[in-house]
Design goal:
The complex is a heterotetramer of chains A (176), B (364), C (196) and D (383). Chain B has 13 helices and no strands. Chain B has 364 residues and is mostly helical. The longest helix of chain B has 35 residues. Chain B starts with 8 loop residues before the first helix and ends with a helix. With 196 residues, chain C is of the alpha/beta class. Classes of the chains: A alpha+beta (176), B mainly alpha (364), C alpha/beta (196), D alpha+beta (383).
Chain lengths: 176, 364, 196, 383
Amino acid sequence: MISVFSTIARYLLDVYYGARSVWSSCITAIPYLFSAGDFRKEVTEQYPDPISSRTADDLPPRTRGLLYNHIDRCTGCKECEKTCPTQCISIKADQGAEDAKLWVSKFDIDFSRCIFCGLCAEVCQPQSLVHTKQYEGAVYELTDLVASFGRGSVTNEQREKWASLRRAVESDEVFL
Amino acid sequence: MNELSGLSWSAAWRVALGLPEAAPQWLIATIGLICIYGLVILPSGWMVAYLDRKLSADFQARVGPNRAGPAGFFQPLADLLKLLQKETVQEWSWREGFWLGVHTMALYSTVAVLPLGSLALLVDTDMSAFLPFWATLVLALGTMLMGFSQGSAPGWFGGVRVAAQALAGAFPALVALLSAGLQAGGFRWSAFAAIQGGSPLHWTAFANPFQFLAMVVFIISGLVLLGIPPLDAGLSIPDLHGGVASSLYGRRLSLFQLGRFYGFFLWSVITVVLFLGGWILPAGLSVSLQEGGDWKWLQLLELVWLLAKTYSLMVILVWVARVNPRSRVDQITDFAWKVLSPFSLFALIGAALCAGWNVWRAGV
Amino acid sequence: MELGALLSKLKETAPGAVLQKQPFGRSGGQPVMSVWIETRAILDVAKVLSSGELMGGAGSWALDWLENFSVMQLDEALVASWFLRSTKNTEETLILRGSVVPSALNELVELPSVSGVWPMADPFEREAAELFGIRFTTANHGIRHWSTRLLPEGWRGFPLRKGYIFPTEVFGILHSRPLPSATGASGAGSGGEGSA
Amino acid sequence: MIHEHLQEPEKERLRTDLASWEIGPYHGALPAPMQLQLTLDGEVIVSARVETGFLHRGLEKTFELHLWQSAPAYADHLDPEGSVFGELALCMAVEEIARIDVPERAKRIRVILSELTRVTAHMGYVARIARSVGSDTMVHYVLRDREKVLDLFELLSGARFSVNFLRFGGVQADVTEGFIERVLEVCDLIRFRLKEYNDLLTFNHAFLKRTVGVGIIPHGRVHHYGITGPNARASGHSLDVRKVAPYSGYGRVDFEIPMVTPEYGNEGDIHARFLIRLREIAQSVEILRQEAEAIPKGDFSVGPIDKDFVPPAGEAYSRVESSRGLLGCHVVSDGGRSPRRIQFRPPTFSLLAAIPELVRGVRIEDLPVLLMSLDLGIAEADR
């Protein structure tokens, strides 16, 4: 007899718990309906709406966005090319006007391979290769993902002019 | 009390539609069905779909539809148009045609029985309250057939689950309906309306606690019977890719969703009519309008009041469905057989005792 | 349980199995010991160690947990390392070492499978079998099920071996760039400490 | 007749033929690319075969083909959800080979990072469970709160998921100003949210009905498969590397390992695993608060990463408690410019071996919940 009553009691208790948990779940969601308090506001960012969504300027300073190379500062040391885990950087540097600085004729970054790890910008001594905050890199063609920062290939007369200039400098005929 | 009573159902419609005396009844019936379907059911689907999406977005700290129209009000219409203009890549098999036939039959057959007001009753028989059962069961049958017709594992499992739920949920719903009819002394829509008043105190649900219990059982068993979230094991997303609706798209999907919504809407309307005062306007407005004799206003206000109650009920159910996890099909059927059925029988007995007590007291 | 005593006992139970012992890695403090053993005898050693009868028999801890199993190639030899721990006393660690030398680059080598003793060795062995070209043999010299898990069907060669040449064209897809050469790996080929 | 029934009840049972159903490699029920070959009796799973390897990226070979300094960038991609753990295991092993002792501040920053990663991983786990049982409100709440932690990663390192922040001998850069304060803010926020999660889902009756007593990993089978981490703790095994062999200064942190004991009741089932994650989030918040308040001054690294950093010849094996269990890393260096061998011991291996036994007798509807509750990291299992 006791077992019968205890079974019935357990059954009723089960039903009661079910009803109560449904009720508590519904009550939990109520404050959101009126977005009460600071913790229960809507969080959707309607990209690319500049008012409600974050733009590139709102990103933190260390954001690793698309890469950009200040070609004027670039020395063509190829450290980034060596470091890059995915070989997405390809550099071609020629003998430039001043013997210290190379003429970076080709500096291509293939963003279809870049994993934005930030190692290249880390090893860049002259701080020429930097991460911008830009993240919108969608294009229509895969080849458009290759960003080239090089100065373009060197023409022969340029090369001869520089070579003569270097010779002149070495033989102290002219003073720069 | 009013001069339209005693005449056939077509009189009210003829007056409302402004048709001549000589108009045949089939014409009046056709126009009436078209009016009900186009002016009540489809807009209700739009309205409830919008409320569902917007309110669930608010519950979930989202924004929800906000592009199509003011506050995204036209989003359901946009979805419907998108579904309709999708091209069909599979041809309809005879199975799907069969399913479509059953489905459409269930979808349209009860429009005539739909209680939408004191005058809009196309059919008001002694068994009116039972006809929607037939409709919902056939709807479940059509859903099962459609699941089988896809020839895929999700469709099969979903179809079997839908059938099991329909069988499990029909019994307690029937018993709860009996207790309501016991209170009303009949199963005519007009009988249910006659015993209820405008104010919640005079609704059947609050006549006695057993009736309230019967109403709760009726609503929940309707969810089980029609497979409405969170009791929609036949359409569960994670394990079956949406079960019965897994391989539906385009027009088929829109038709399927419309059928599901119609079942939901039908059930809510019946619940309101049986337990929640039906279409009786509050503050004795019905009586005054009837004596005033302006039937169009009477019917319009009754319809608005009925639909308002129905929408609020549906919104509450949607809210419950959004915050609660989905149950397993064997748990749902266990719940229907082991919890809902005993409680419905308990409510029936209690309602019978109350009714008998009332009769005895009236005799004394 | 002190390791030297354990090794002496092991020499008694499995004669000729233990070749030498040396500290593992450069871990300071109490060093983790690695024991080089005869590869063919790994199964006997595994049974003895996992049963724990050397460590005082029942009640005491045993090396019954194979935490990790890694294979590496030193110069020519494929060196397999079994990282053993005890589920009761997780501080005690013993590392078994065994090596096999493949006759050619694409030749399979055979290694006894310890998944009968330590069931958790099974996934490690499946991976090593595929990527290193090791055929794991069970106690009764049966060969375990060879399943291509990671590599596509009909893949030639064993990628984790050192001299592996990458195919320039896979399923009709040509590599758009020269694949990284393994020259970086052959720096000062001293072969690490374990190759003694 | 009745006696016959009594003697042979088998005859009375409904018999159905067995059906076979292959799901995967891509299916809603699967947490990651894998394949399950199920044999079904009605809706009940009779047996299952697991096939993985669809996510093999040749990671360990790639390590050997690149310089040492680009190894952490690849250790990131061992597990996209817990990228810091792979980095930490690799860096600890390499530092042991090269005999680098990490500054105290760097150690604290590493602990903060790994605990934040644990919080994000467990929040993603809770979201996956909620989606698999179909309570989408919970999913949105959890993912919204995880964004707050990912913002911390973005503020610190510039990336949200694959933070390539740890370096040999320290971390890449010092913490930005305001980072510590925001860590403490997020700790308070998470404390506030945990109660909400419990109200909404954790103790919901329907959720309990679906998770309690389903997919039990018995106490005795844990060591048979070598299961570690929260799944083992849900079955009553309190192995945690942070306590057993404290690394990176975990020894001085005061925290406890949440564990489900047999007295707790539902031992080793889905709900126990779910609850363990929530309690671990609370413990991680405790650790974060302690570390953030006690972070010392000093330099964040032994020096900038050397362009041609080469550790001496040697090998080391490091163990890290990742969000899934014991993550080991075996690093062998021959003094060359590239690693000779870097091998990872992912905690997911043992779980994959346990799946066929776990899913036996489970209904199809519970399959997604069960698989999600194991927290399978296919990315780190296939590598």
